[in-house]
Amino acid sequence: MQKKSFNELGVNSDIVRALSKCGITEPTDIQEQAIPIIKSGKDIIGKSKTGSGKTAAFGIPLLDSLKHSSNVQALILAPTRELAVQISGELEKFGKYTDLKFATVYGGVSMFHQVRDIKKADIVIGTPGRVLDHLNRKTLKLSELTHFVLDEADQMVDMGFIKDIEKILRYTKKKKQMILFGATISHEVELIRRKYMNKPFVAESEVHVTEEYLEQYYYNVQKQKKFSLLVHLLNVEKANQIIVFCSSIRTVELIAKNLKAQKIKSGMIHGKMNQNKRMSAIKEFNNGNQNILVASPVAARGLDIKNVSHIFNYDLSKDPQEYVHRVGRTARAGESGKAFTLLSSSDHPVFRQILQDYDLNIQEVIIESFPRVDFDVSSAKRSDNRFGRSRGPRRNSSRSNNSSEGRSRQRFGNRRSNRNDSKPSEGRSRSFGNKKSRPSSFSRPSRNKNPKSSKVGSTILNLRSR
After folding, report:
1. Do 237 and 310 meet the contact criterion of CB atoms below 8 Å apart?
2. Position with higher pLDDT, 465 vs 350
3. Which residues contact 172 (CB under 8 A, 6 or more apart)?
4. Please, is 129 exposed, middle or buried when counting C-beta atoms within 10 Å of its C-beta (0-12, 13-18, 19+)?
5. Which pLDDT band, with edges at 50, 70 and 90, does 51 fall under?
6. Across 10-26, average pLDDT
7. For residues 225 and 229, what is the distance between their CA atoms, to the nearest angstrom?
8. Which CATH architecture has domain 13-204?
9. pTM above 0.70, yes or no
10. Distance (Å, rounded) from C-alpha 328 to C-alpha 307?
11. CA-to-CA distance for 71 and 191, rounded, in angstroms?
C-alpha cells in the first residue's frame, strides 16, 4: 500500500512547511495511523517503538487542531525532564508558522519563568510532579483543557506516577480527548484506559527493532571479568556512537570512572545528576564530542539520542521490557546496529524471562581470552537502586566485580530465525535454530553435550552446568 503524504492526511500547509524545514517529508507508519484518529477528536492508544516518530504522531494533529487563546488547551505529560524538554522543542519546530504558545514545566529549576510562560501558553508540556505543584499553587488551570496526552505512559507507571496522573486528571473536565502513547500497555495503563478513556482507537506500528537491521549477541562471563571484557569489546568493535547501559546509578558511576582510568573517553547520565549536567552529557554525545555514553535506563526511553551504532548491556534490569527499550536506541531509521549483553549469573533469570516474553534472536559469542584490566570499586557512592519495575525491598547485590561467579553456563537463543548474520569482530557466535557460526582466532566452538531443553513459545533454552 502506498504511503499517504501529510497533505493527504489533511495536515495544515503551514505545519507541512515547518515539517519540510525539519527534513520530515513523509509520515512514518505510526504517524499515518494516528494523525487522522487524533484529528477526528477520538481517544487513542498509540503503541510503537522508540524512534518511530511518536512525538510527531500526536504533536502534528494537536497543533493542527488548536488555535491560540487565553487558556491552556492541551497538557502533555512526560516521565522525565529531558523528554519534556525534547517534546517542547519538537512542537516549537513543527508549530513554527502557527501562533501557538508553549510552556515547559519540570522540577529542579525556578518556577518563576514557568509561571510567566504558562500565562501565555496554549500547550503545557511537563513532568507530573511539577504540573501538580503548579496546580496546587493555582498557577496552572486546566478547566478549559480539551486534550490530555500521556507520552511514554508505560514508563510513567513504572516510575510510580500513576497516582499523580489521576490527581491531575481530577483538575480537568470530563469531556476531553485522551491521547496515550507507549511501547507497551501494562495492567495499570489498562486501568487508565478503562477509567478515563472513551472507546479508544488503537494505532500500532512495529514495537520492536527488526532483526533485519539489528544484530544481537550475548557473552557469558564471570562477574569479576566483566569490565575487562567490556574494555576489550570497546577496543575491537568498529563503532560510531556507543551507549553502555547499567542498571544502577552506582554501576554507571563505577564504569565511567574506570573507563577514564583506562584512557577511554566517555560521558555518563543517570537520574541523580542535575538537569544541566544531564542535558550537557546528551548534547556532548549527540555532537560527537563523546562517542561513549554510560547510562542508566533513563536514557532508554524517548530521548533523542542520535546515531547510536552499538549498545552494550553491562548488566540487566529486573524488568524484561527494559531490554527492548535499551536495544531500541540503535538500528533506527533504516540504519544497522549491534547490541551486546554481558551476562553473569545474576543476569540469567531475567535474560531467560526476556526470551520467554519476546521473540528475539540473540546469538551467543564464546571468547577464549582477553586482556585483564584493573577495576577500582572505591570512591563511588553506593546506590543499588534498580531501574526495573520492582520497587520492593532492596535485594542483596555485589559490591564489586570481584565476587566469584562459579562455573555455570547457560545457552539462550531463538529457534525461528534462519538468517546468517554478520559476526561480531571477535569470538565465535552461536544461536539456536539453523544459524551457522563463522570461526575466529579468538574463539572455540560451543559444545553442548546432553542438553536439557525447554521450549517456551518459539524460544528454546538449553541449560548445561559445568
Report:
1. yes
2. 350
3. 75, 142, 143, 145, 148
4. middle
5. low
6. 95
7. 6
8. 3-Layer(aba) Sandwich (3.40)
9. no
10. 12
11. 29
* Concatenated DSSP letters of 91-147: HHHHTTTS---EEEE-TTS-SHHHHHHHHH-SEEEE-HHHHHHHHHTTS---TT--E
Q: Which is nearest to 122 in space by CA: 85, 69, 58? A: 69
Predicted confidence at residue 128, as pLDDT, reads 96
Which tens digits make up the pLDDT trace of 283-294?
899 888 999 999
Domain assignments of the chain as residue spans, ordered by start: 13-204, 214-389+401-464
Question: Is residue 414 classed exposed, middle or buried when 0-12, 13-18 and 19+ CB atoms within 10 A define those classes?
Answer: buried
Give φ, ψ of 381 to 5 degrees.
-65, 130
Contact partners, residue 187, CB within 8 Å, separation at least 6? none
Judge whether 79 and 54 are in contact, CB under 8 Å. Answer: no
Fold of 214-389+401-464: Rossmann fold (3.40.50)
Distance CA 430, CA 367 (A): 11
Cβ atoms 63, 100 nearer than 8 A: yes
Q: For residue 197, which of 36, 39, 42 has the smallest C-alpha distance? A: 42
Arithmetic mean of pLDDT, 233-237: 94
Distance, in Å, from the CA atom of 117 to the CA atom of 279, rounded to the nearest integer, reads: 21
**What are the Cα distances from residue 356, in Å, to 90, 299, 360, 412, 458?**
37, 25, 9, 10, 8
Type and span of the H or E element at 428: strand 428-430
Q: Number of helices and strands (H, E) in the chain?
A: 14, 18
Q: How far apart are CA 401 and CA 424, in angstroms?
A: 25
| 13-204 and 214-389+401-464 share one fold | yes
The amino acid at 168? I
And the C-alpha cell for 339?
Answer: 547490541
Decide if 303 contacts 86 (C-beta within 8 A): yes
Please provide the average confidence, as pLDDT, over all residues in the chain: 81
Of residues 116 and 449, which shows the higher confidence score?
116
The cell numbers describing 298, all together, are 533513563
pLDDT computed for residue 406 by the predictor: 35
113 contacts: CB under 8 Å, gap ≥ 6: none
3-state DSSP helix/strand/coil % of the chain, to nearest 5: 35, 20, 50
The DSSP H or E segment spanning 195 is helix 187-196
Element of type H or E holding 309? strand 308-313
